[in-house]
Structure formats: C-alpha cells, structure tokens
Amino acid sequence: xxxxxxxxxxxxxxxxxxxxxxxxxxxxxxxxxxxxxxxxxxxxxxxxxxxxxxxxxxxxxxxxxxxxxxxxxxxxxxxxxxxxxxxxxxxxxxxxxxxxxxxxxxxxxxxxxxxxxxxxxxxxxxxxxxxxxxxxxxxxxxxxxxxxxxxxxxxxxxxxxxxxxxxxxxxxxxxxxxxxxxxxxxxxxxxxxxxxxxxxxxxxxxxxxxxxxxxxxxxxxxxxxxxxxxxxxxxxxxxxxxxxxxxxxxxxxxxxxxxxxxxxxxxxxxxxxxxxxxxxxxxxxxxxxxxxxxxxxxxxxxxxxxxxxxxxxxxxxxxxxxxxxxxxxxxxxxxxxxxxxxxxxxxxxxxxxxxxxxxxxxxxxxxxxxxxxxxxxxxxxxxxxxxxxxxxxxxxxxxxxxxxxxxxxxxxxxxxxxxxxxxxxxxxxxxxxxxxxxxxxxxxxxxxxxxxxxxxxxxxxxxxxxxxxxxxxxxxxxxxxxxxxxxxxxxxxxxxxxxxxxxxxxxxxxxxxxxxxxxxxxxxxxxxxxxxxxxxxxxxxxxxx
Length: 545
Prior knowledge:
The chain has 20 helices and 14 strands. The protein is of the alpha/beta class and 545 residues long. It starts with 14 loop residues before the first helix and ends in a 26-residue tail after the last helix.
C-alpha cells in the first residue's frame, strides 16, 4: 500500500529527487537529462531542453515520425484513403489506436475503419516497391473510389529509396483524383512531432485552397488540433452549432479532406493542440491573412473563456448574448457536479506525462476539482510548448529539424482570397489588448516546485511515484500497467481507454465523475507491487554437451 504525503503547505523541493535520478546515469547522460528536468518557478524565465533525441537504451514513451503523421494528423479524416507503403506491422500500429470518432452522413465515405498497406516483403526491399505501390493505389481506387489518397512512407521505404512523391504524381495523372505523399519515415525526426510538421506541410500544399466555395454562415471558423478522441469534437461542434458559429473544418477530428479544401475561406483559426498543428495556422495567416488564436475546450472554465474569446473576436452583440446564455446555463450543471465530486477528491495528487498540449490542458480540469498536479511533461514538445512562443526566435535549428521541409509561404496572388478585412480586424483588436498568435506555455501556469520533465522514461517514472506518492497518474498505454502495479490508478489520456468525451461542459462532468470513480475507492490501497517481495529476477545458463 502506498503511504500518501501531505502537500497542504505547498510542494516539497524536488532537488533531492532530481539528484537521485541523475546519479544513476553515466556522466554525459546525466548532463543531458539535467537540462530536460526543471524545478519549476513560475516567477522566473526558465529554459528546458526539449525536442532532442532520446538517449539509446532508455525506455521512452515517444512514438515515431510516421505515427505522428499518419496516426495523429491524417488518421481521423474519413474520406481519404491513408495508404501505408511499408511492412504490415506499421499499418497495424496506426490503425484505430487513438479511438478517433466520426459522424458519417448518409451515403458518405468512411475509410477510418480500414487498414490500407502495400505489405512490403523481402523482395520489395531488395528490388524496390514502387511497382507494388502503384498497383495498391489502383486497387484502392477501383474498390473504393475515394476523393483522395495519401501515401505514407515507413522506415524501409526511406532506406531503399522508393519515391512516393513521384508515384503520387504519376497516379494522380492516371486516376484524376488528389494523390499525394508523405516522407514520414519513422526515423526522420526525434519523435512524432516531426510527423505532425510533415503532415501539416503536405496538407497545406496539396489540400488547403483547392475549393474557393462561397461563404456559408456569418461566423466561419476552423478548429485546429482537435482529433475527436472519444467524441471530444462532437461536444465542441454541438456548442458551436447552438451559438451560430459555422465550423468549416477541423484538423482533423470528425473531418474530411473536402472540408480542408475550403478551410482557407474561414474568418478565424483556433488552435487546440499547439504542437501538432500550429504550422498550418501560421501558414494560413501568411498566405490568406486569417488570424489565429489559442483556445482550450478542456475544462469548464477554459471552455467558457474560449467561447467568450471567439465572441469577442467577432464583436457581434447577438453572438455574444448567445454565448453568455450557453455558458450560464452549462455552468449551473457543471458546478452542481463539481461541488459534489470536489468534496471527495480535493487535495489528491496527480502527475501527467502526455503528448500534445494535454499535459497542460488537463491541469485545468484537475484544478477545478482541487487536485494538485505535482509533476508534468510532454513526450514530443518543443521549448515553446513549455516556455511559451516568446522563445521561438531563440530556439536553435538542429540537424534533425533540418530533415523536415520548411515551406516558403507567400501572400496569395488572388486578391479575392486575401483577407485585408481580417488583417485590419487583428490590428484593431491587438491594440485593444486581444491576444493573437500567442501561447504562454505550460510552465508559467504550474506551481512552484513542481517538477517538469521532457520525454520522461521508465526509471524516472518509478522514482517520481516513490517520491510524490500520487493518487492518479495520467499517461499512455505503455506505462499503464506498470504504474497500476504500484497501486496508483492510471488515467490513459492518449485514447481515454473506453472513456470520454472530456471537452466542454458535459465533458468536464464526465471527467469529474471518472475521477470520483478512480480516486474515491479503497481498491488501490490493497495493491502491492509484486517486485516488493521478489525484487530481483536471477537467471542462470547451463550448456549441456
């Protein structure tokens, strides 16, 4: 049974913990890891090392570049065939693992449930797989008749030199549909973050701007970095629809390639997951003049602030009144459940090591319940995700980052698509104190003496649990069962296990109730880690003549 600590007088200084962790590493490794572990002080500007290669031999939580490109960004889009050029294992790895949901209109296409692969064999590695890839594209087109096909490179493809982009151009000319490729070999970047960037580039080059359709609604917006895990996007869409906000496209939960084609006609871009999608927001502003704001719909308070910020942007009295009405109504429901649950879980301790912005956003939900977050970090963040966008000019461009194509984006030559009205609106609102193109990062909002760790590994996870004695640990499936054997419940925040949605007001209520079920129970006190009684496995080897 884990004996809990008292944090009523603030968080303890974790310096001894950090020193103990680093003492077990070789000198060079310890020097590197020291820079990725920060004892937080929100009053100071502190630098953290992030987006660097994982040390070989350490059990990391990270995924690969391919996983970020295909599995995260393009995976939730229902009307494109995502064809993986590589061994079948890569396709299986990125097939429905994140529980992305979608609503398919009658007669609409939905290819999310399928797993498309060229299933490369040894002979394709030796003699090349481009011919097999072309046949796979033709077969997919003949069987399903999709609007678009995306081709994703895996590690063997990069090693043998198959040119997926040349194949895509050839097959696009032959079949007459949009076909484009992604050079997203798993090793191309230090984590799945590189895959996000590659996906953003190719979607912007090959999809955004393909359909200059007429306006459809008074307040047109795009939502970027929301992947509809467990139905999260459905909650946001429901509120937008009630408020009269026209959601043109989501990148990429409950999304279609068709909607991304006219995303450039929006009046505003809203960024949820800053790391995975800020590239497209920047490029759309550069080319079309569409401004972007950072929002979060995780947590009731955050949802309310985000809705009001959208209404403030448009400056419409009717929209503002409707948003106020929605927020007032929903907060009554939320507060009733929150107070009931808070009485049972307040003072509990949480840690969270999750990708994207989730390790930051979900702290809002814990704060609403009075649960302390003592340590947090990301799997694939960059410094700006921790410290805020103000540090971007000072981030050094390393060799791994140079593996990713940097698009040169210029103002559109079509005067009808350049939004001078939005440029003027942004200038006026900025002068009035409205925040655009900004993200403050996670560290400024975390408590003093909380421990921020980038790319946490298994050894560090064990020591964190021993030191902090958390009541709940939020992470992914790789850590789930080891953490639970310590007698600590783990909330899986990559795919929610079988839970969700957790966005907006009803989502907050769902999360409150989930925390009550997990924390207001005695079952975890009965769990003892099996290695306490058998801490060492001793093996022997004999050779028989």
